[in-house]
């Protein structure tokens, strides 16, 4: 149970950084990863009326499908007739579903057909491919479309320049040419890549780029079968050599090639499995999961930047918990984020405490809900809400200092100074993952300050204490509000309600004081130049000491005014050794 929510945050600036069983965790064991179980095709029916994005739908089991940034359901692409999720093993049934999908997609998105005609008239094949096909079938088609073609990069560039005035070639060495085009009132970004037939070396994380000559070889080198489907745009045919449509209906992740080969070629695909588990609610079929587990150490050859980007995409989904469980359960987290599985502390008759790992995931769940609930625009919930990486990293890592600080005092488990230790650990890990400096510092600051509120409900804070709370939080105040409220996971309703009321009171006091003072930018009543003029001194450490003295008075007593501040400064100066 969280600490509740306030509807209109008044202070602090939002950071601009922008499913499976979870069950009760057993001591010393990894959480149950989302591994697919064999199911009869007749069990594939799924109610489509449920709204997975409804407020308050956070559940421990079967999390809702995330829609994520840029993956809204546009009005221009809806499928009111086709229920492809009722797929059987019948070839005829599959063919009917595929044909319907192709017809409806091309009818709903004329730009695709236009591009198909352009390439066909030039004697080239072109296919809508990968995530674009998957997302179209999931009613999640965004503004970005991916294609693959028989045309070489130069020929592709020539054709796209006749299709759009805006063309980019930054990926040309990899066979990719991009273009932007407006159609049906929407801005589309199109990327067309020459068929690929890359070769990989076991010692390298980078492929030897090679262009192919057919769609079949191109699809087999893709990460998962649900991303290895294509639509022959000109021929209006659905290409699915690896059973991706059936896997999509079952919400299962499986590799087109043997998983050991696929993950050896590109180990980052193992992290993508975790990301898709979070973003789409998909599970991993057993053979694929077993390969992830046995090959998890191979992720170490992948660059920190690529790992960071996949981890961030996972965390920015609506339901990161299943993806994180998959990282931990497969052993990948032991390599990329070892502090996460380290929080699975043993529980025995001496060390009775909350499971820190599960607690952290619950805090993350609650932080995501509050992050959305508190994001208002023009007095209303922001329809364009963007997920906040800083608060999600802070929520996940806020207790990573506990394993290193665990102790026993009078029969009670303690984690003294885990906030300070955790901030240092987070800073080190986030730097190793090459996160930007502002993200590293913001997350570390929040972790170090996440216990500041404790004790507020036991004794009332002075105005000075409230001012210091706001000043120390700085531009992370709104993040600190969310993190502190989310850090209440007690099942004791009375205790949770008392904590919620106490934090409501604190925020109300911040509002009240802020109406009188600019709390977020508290400064002494005199600046450095005035201090030097009054004391008749030049720049030096004495000016800094005087400034800190006046700031402390300002925090304790509120605005002093220039006259009193001058008197206080002179009195302080007389007591200083000269």
**CATH hierarchy, class of the domain at 344-521:** Mainly Alpha
Largest sheet entry: 7 strands, mixed
Low-confidence stretches: 4-32, 37-82
Strand order of the largest sheet: 3-4-5-2-1-6-7
* CATH domain fold name of the domain at 344-521: Hypothetical protein af1432
**What would you call the shape?**
elongated
The CATH architecture of the domain at 344-521 can be named as Orthogonal Bundle
Count of DSSP helices? 23
End-to-end CA span:
58 Å
Total count of strands: 13
Beta-strand portion reads 5-15%
Arithmetic mean of pLDDT: 81
Helix content: 40-55%
Classification by helices and strands: alpha+beta
Rounded to an integer, what's the Rg over CA atoms?
28 Å
Write the layout of secondary structure elements.
Blueprint: H1 91-108, H2 110-121, E1 126-129, H3 131-137, E2 144-149, H4 153-163, E3 166-168, E4 176-183, E5 186-194, H5 215-220, E6 230-232, E7 237-239, H6 244-250, E8 252-253, H7 259-265, H8 268-280, E9 283-284, H9 286-294, H10 304-315, H11 321-330, H12 332-336, H13 356-373, E10 376-377, E11 380-381, H14 389-397, H15 402-405, E12 406-409, E13 412-415, H16 418-432, H17 437-449, H18 463-473, H19 477-486, H20 493-516, H21 528-535, H22 541-557, H23 562-574
Parallel strand pairs: 2-5, 8-9
Antiparallel strand pairs: 1-2, 1-6, 3-4, 4-5, 6-7, 10-11, 12-13
Helix pairs in contact: 8-10, 8-11, 13-14, 13-19, 14-17, 14-19, 16-17, 18-20, 18-22
């Amino acid at each position: 149970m969280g600490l509740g929510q306030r509807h209109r945050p008044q202070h602090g600036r939002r950071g601009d950084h922008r499913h499976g069983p979870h069950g009760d965790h057993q001591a010393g064991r990894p959480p149950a990863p989302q591994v697919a179980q064999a199911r009869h095709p007749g069990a594939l029916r799924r109610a489509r009326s449920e709204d997975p994005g409804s407020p308050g739908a956070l559940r421990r089991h079967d999390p809702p499908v995330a829609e994520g940034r840029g993956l809204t359901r546009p009005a221009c692409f809806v499928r009111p007739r086709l229920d492809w999720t009722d797929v059987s093993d019948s070839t005829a049934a599959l063919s009917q579903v595929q044909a319907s999908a192709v017809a409806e997609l091309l009818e709903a998105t004329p730009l695709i057909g236009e591009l198909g005609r352009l390439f066909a008239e030039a004697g080239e094949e072109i296919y809508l491919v990968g995530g674009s096909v998957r997302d179209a079938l999931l009613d999640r088609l965004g503004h970005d479309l991916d294609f693959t073609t028989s045309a070489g990069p130069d020929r592709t560039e020539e054709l796209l320049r006749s299709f759009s005035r805006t063309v980019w070639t930054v990926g040309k060495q990899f066979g990719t040419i991009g273009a932007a085009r407006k159609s049906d009132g929407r801005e589309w970004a199109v990327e067309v890549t020459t068929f690929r037939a890359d070769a990989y070396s076991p010692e390298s994380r980078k492929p030897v780029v090679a262009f192919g000559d057919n769609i079949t070889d191109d699809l087999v080198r893709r990460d998962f079968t649900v991303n290895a489907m294509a639509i022959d745009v000109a021929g209006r045919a659905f290409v699915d050599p690896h059973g991706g449509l059936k896997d999509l209906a079952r919400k299962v992740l499986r590799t087109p090639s043997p998983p050991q080969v696929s993950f050896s070629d590109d180990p980052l695909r193992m992290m993508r499995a975790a990301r898709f588990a979070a973003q789409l609610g998909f599970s991993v079929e057993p053979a694929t999961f077993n390969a992830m587990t046995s090959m998890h150490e191979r992720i170490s050859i992948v660059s920190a930047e690529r790992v960071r980007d996949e981890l961030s995409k996972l965390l920015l989904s609506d339901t990161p918990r299943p993806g994180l469980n998959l990282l931990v359960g497969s052993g990948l987290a032991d390599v990329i984020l070892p502090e996460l599985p380290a929080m699975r502390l043993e529980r025995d008759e001496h060390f009775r405490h909350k499971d820190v790992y599960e607690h952290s995931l619950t805090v993350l769940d609650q932080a995501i809900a509050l992050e959305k609930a508190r994001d208002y625009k023009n007095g209303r919930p922001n329809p364009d809400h963007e997920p906040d990486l800083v608060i999600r990293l802070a929520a996940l890592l806020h207790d990573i200092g506990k394993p290193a600080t665990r102790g026993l005092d009078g029969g009670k488990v303690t984690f003294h100074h885990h906030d300070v230790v955790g901030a240092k650990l987070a800073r080190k890990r986030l730097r190793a993952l090459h996160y930007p400096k502002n993200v590293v510092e913001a997350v570390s600051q929040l972790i170090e300050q996440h216990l500041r509120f404790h004790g507020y409900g036991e004794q009332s804070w002075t105005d000075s204490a409230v001012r210091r709370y706001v000043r120390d939080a700085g531009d992370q105040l709104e993040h600190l509000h969310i993190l502190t409220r989310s850090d209440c996971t007690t099942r004791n309703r009375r205790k949770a309600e008392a904590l919620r009321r106490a934090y409501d009171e604190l925020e109300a006091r911040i509002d009240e004081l802020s109406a009188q003072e600019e709390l977020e930018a508290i400064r002494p009543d005199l600046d450095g130049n005035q201090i030097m003029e009054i004391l008749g001194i030049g720049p030096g450490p004495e000016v800094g000491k005087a400034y800190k003295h006046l700031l402390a008075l300002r925090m304790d007593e509120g605005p002093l005014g220039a006259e009193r501040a001058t008197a206080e400064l002179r009195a302080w100066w007389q007591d200083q050794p000269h």
